[in-house]
Amino acid sequence: MAKDRIVIIDGNSLVNRAFYALPPFVTKDGQYTNGIYGFVTMLLKVMEDYQPQYIGVAFDLKAPTFRHKEYGDYKAGRKKMPSELSQQIQPLKEVLDALNIFRIEAEGYEADDLIGTLAKHCEREGMEVLIVTGDKDALQLVSQQVKVLITRKGISSLDIYDDVKLMEDYEVTPLQFIDLKALMGDKSDNIPGVPGVGEKTAIKLLKQFGTTENLIQHTDEISAAKLKEKVEGNIENIILSKRLATIITDIPVEIKLDDLKKEEPNYDELLTLFRRFEFNSLISRFTKNEGAETDEGEGNTGLETVSSDQFYEIGSIEELKTFIKKVRESEYLAIKTVSEEKNITTDEIVAIAMAADANEVYYLDFRMMDDKSAVLQLLKEVLEDDETKIIGHDIKKELVHFAPHQIEIRNVSFDTFIGEYLIDPAKSSYNVKELGVVYLNKNIVDEEELLGKGKSRKTLKELEKEDLRKLLSQQVNVTFNLVPRIKEKLHELELEDLYYKVELPLTEVLASMEVAGIKVDQHMLKDLEIQFRDMVSQLTEDIYRLAGVEFNINSPKQLGEVLFDKLELPPIKKTKTGYSTNAEVLEKLREKHEIIPKILEYRTIAKLKSTYVDGLLGIINPVTERIHSSFNQTVTTTGRISSTEPNLQNIPVRLELGRQLRKVFVAKEGHKFIDADYSQIELRVLAHISGDENLLDAFEKGQDIHTRTASEIFGVEVHEVTSSMRSSAKAVNFGIVYGISDFGLGENLKISRAQAKKYIDRYLEKYSSVKAYMENIVQEGKHKGYVVTLLNRRRYLPELLSKNFNIRSFGERMAMNTPIQGSAADIIKIAMINVHRMLKEEGLKAKLILQVHDELIVETPLDEMEKVSQIIEMGMENAMKLKVQLKADLSQGDNWYEAK
DNA sequence: CGTAACTGCAA
DNA sequence: TATTGCAGTTACG
After folding, report:
1. How confident is the model at residue A306 (pLDDT cuts 50, 70, 90)?
2. Which among A125, A114, A143 has a CA at the least distance from the CA of A56?
3. How far is the CA of A882 from the C1' of C1 (A)?
């Protein structure tokens, strides 16, 4: 049986942390609640993360303790708790009572002593003890079974200290931590220590003498004369300080563990309190519990903490050469780099970790190397060598980092990041640490934790030298060892073709697109900025005038109040937090008030300005005058690529005003864009997968697919199809691809559900094999637990087994849509590889620079236009052989607007 | 401060 | 109660 676990929380310390970490929240009655809120969220997180069987919260009481009696100045000069905080203590205790969490309090003892005593008691009972506090003093209680969790910046993350981590961070044992404080003193407790001795000196002394007692007896052995004098002059202080700093672990109190057993909260009381404090998010967390899964935390027991692998530092060219010899003897080289992240085309490398076998890691602090170009030259030989198989986790980064130094990693043989994505594309992250835990039972340093989050988040290069070395080395070590495990899994799931023939080669294409970037006309963008700014301010003025009040138009809440309360327009729809003010609603109100068209126009312009004009202006690379978006290969569940910073896959096109923006994306001097998009790729894929004769026939005859569908649905000849019939049919075709529902189609076409159902039934009657496909794929998904694309890309669909109708229906639509959307993604990925390879092989200068799901954009020198057009057309249309021909439409222009 | 909600842009 | 994404803004707790 697993060990029982107890969580002991330092109440005063934690509520303090919460109070200062959060901005003040005040309820309508003027009650401050940020400390309570922060405390409760931290508490809940710890309970969820660690699933303790026992839990208690310790508090200081007002009564003086033995420390005050012994040392009158104890904690003197400490500022009084502000009333905004002190008024939260009693309410917090009420919350704890409602949670049925025991409060540990005793007059004359500080929370620390209560915690210490309880911790040691539980340790003797063989329990695992977790102490949660914001105060480092508790570190003296650490042992093999006692861990201390200390809050970091903010309230969302905790540092876990066990004896190993304590030694790593402070180089002292838990007991020496007391001596450390005795020597350093502590301002906040007014513990004197030795004046002039700080952390550095104290650690040095403890390394030499072990304890303060030993130090006092052997002061003559202190080498520095000044220091010796200081220590000798403060012996009394040291002794007193140590006594004050020592947490008492044997308070004479009776401990009834039963009191500390975790119990169900008293929900009535709890919700009453939460309502009083206006903790609406917590209320919903505690009420919507029906049907929620009960997630038993499995805990981290049995995990090997990595610290024993062999890490070596490469500090000279000679050492690098020696390492390279090892590489030559090995089949694989795992690599991970960190760069300055200044500029994609002139970037400098900060550090490199490399592994040529499973146990050793070599780390090179690039900043410290004297002859950088010699280092790069040597690396180039290895990285461009066809014999050495390169391994990475997100190797696209390395491809990009080495590009400015004319190093092309030729032989990328494995990327664990992409491997795990194919194994399960639905995961929200694929970090090395987690993979290490799952596949290797190895636990390495947490990157997120090291970097922190939010505003104070660091970049990798800003880490302490030691932290960065450790992080990179461990990640590379784990990456190296992951390869056989992930390979095995890819084999098992028959993903090898997709992996080696598509995804891995694609990485290089994406890296090349990122490095190439796309040129933007800055002047045009700046002009647009001014133009839009004027329009927005004019519209704002009009809106204020028509509303008779100034308010924040961007706030749906305030806008709703103005429209529906003040102007008393009819609210059409509401959201879960208030009135809906979206474009669909406003359109219906357009004629009801002059203000509505102004607001719609404001929304349009404000969106274009903030997201596209300002957004793009802020991200232009000053050196290249281009935009270098990131193309991510592991984000979507269907296999599509995604684009960020900026997202270049959602630049406006449907409305003319927005479409104008495409004019700012220009081909460079002497070049043009060739824009090629697949014609109806998803419906062609559907025709192929379903084998539907009717649909295949439509494509074979080269008919307009929506017109053909309209003629089928409405039972008229093709030449009799009106434009409104065609656009309805188009919506039906969309619906089919998305996994149709009568409700959804009705909503989209603004027709009744019954009418929508008629369209769908009629469609499925005419395209009977499509109907069969839809039914079969859902059955298959239920049976196997997943569906696949043409290239066997897999997506698991647990939703199909849900008892909840909505969730199950969602699963069914995903089952229908994923093979279609995903196979189209498979196809264009092959096309990208084809185009990229052919351009390279033919020695052409044209470069693939963008992909927008069914569209490729190639920046092409004028004298290559014809040849490149042919390559693109071939590359796309021959990407895969289907029952129906793939078709690509090409056009060209000086900018993206013209080329579309 | 960290996150959720709303809105709107693309294929 | 139509698929897949990203981002700007506001508001909550």
Report:
1. low
2. A114
3. 34
Tell me what pLDDT residue A304 has.
58
Which of strand B's nucleotides are less than 7 A from any protein C-beta? Answer: 1-11
Give A254 CA → C2 C1' in Å: 64
pLDDT, averaged across chain A: 92
CA–CA separation, A795 and A424 (whole Å): 7
- Give residue A451's pLDDT: 85
CA distance A199 to A208: 14
Cβ burial of A852 (10 Å; 0-12, 13-18, 19+) is middle
Domains delineated in chain A: 1-169+249-279 (3.40.50.1010), 172-246 (1.10.150.20), 307-516 (3.30.420.10), 519-627 (1.20.1060.10), 683-821 (1.10.150.20)
Q: How many residues does chain A have?
A: 900
CB distance A882 to A688 below 8 Å: yes
From A422, A438, A447, select the one nearest A482 (Cα to Cα).
Answer: A438
The separation, in Å, between residue A27 CA and nucleotide C13 C1' comes to 10
For A619 and C11, how far is CA from C1' in angstroms?
Answer: 27
Nucleic chain B contacts, Cβ below 7 Å: A 21-23, 153-156, 281, 453-456, 556, 575-578, 580-584, 586, 603-604, 607, 611, 649-655, 658-659, 852-855
Tell me the pTM.
0.88
Rounded distance in angstroms from the CA atom of residue A648 to the C1' atom of nucleotide C5: 11
> Which nucleotide comes closest to A853 if you measure CA to C1'?
B11
Distances (CA, A) of A802 to A112, A287, A292, A775: 48, 21, 12, 18
The nucleotide closest to A33 (CA, C1' atoms):
C13
Eight-state DSSP code of residue A181: H
Chain C bases closer than 7 angstroms to a protein Cβ: 1-13
Residue A226, CB-side half-sphere exposure with 13 Å CA sphere: 4
**3-state DSSP assignment of residue A895:** strand
- Residue with the two structure tokens 């989050």: A453
The residue to which tokens 């491809």 are assigned: A399
| Structure tokens, A843 | 């020695």
- Cα–Cα nearest to A366, from A336, A324, A329: A336
Which residue type occupies A670? G
- Which tens digits make up the pLDDT trace of A797-849? 999 998 889 889 999 999 999 999 999 999 999 999 999 999 999 999 999 99
Amino acid at A253: V
Residue A288 has pLDDT above 90, yes or no: no
Nucleotide nearest to A599 (CA to C1'): B7
What SS3 class is residue A104?
A: strand
pLDDT tens-digit map of A61-85: 888 888 888 878 887 777 788 999 9
Q: Is the CB of A644 under 7 A from strand C?
A: yes
DSSP A710-760: HHHHHT--GGG--HHHHHHHHHHHHHHHH---HHHHHHHHT--HHHHHHHH
Element counts in chain A: helices (H) and strands (E): 38, 27
Question: Which nucleotide lies at the shortest CA–C1' distance from A38?
Answer: C13
The predicted-structure confidence for A460-476, as pLDDT tens digits, reads as follows 998 999 999 999 999 99
Which is nearest to A578 in space by CA: A592, A593, A561? A561
pLDDT digit string, tens, across residues A230-268: 999 999 999 999 999 999 999 998 889 999 999 999 999
A747 Cβ contacts chain C strand, under 7 Å: yes
Residue with nearest Cα to nucleotide B3 C1': A281
Q: Strand A412-415 to strand A389-392: parallel, antiparallel, or no bridges (unpaired)?
A: parallel
> How distant is C1' of B1 from CA of A153, in Å?
10
Structure tokens at A352: 């490199």
Residue A303 pLDDT level (bands cut at 50, 70, 90)? low
CA of A581 to C1' of B6 (A): 9
Beta strand pairing call for A349-355 and A412-415: unpaired
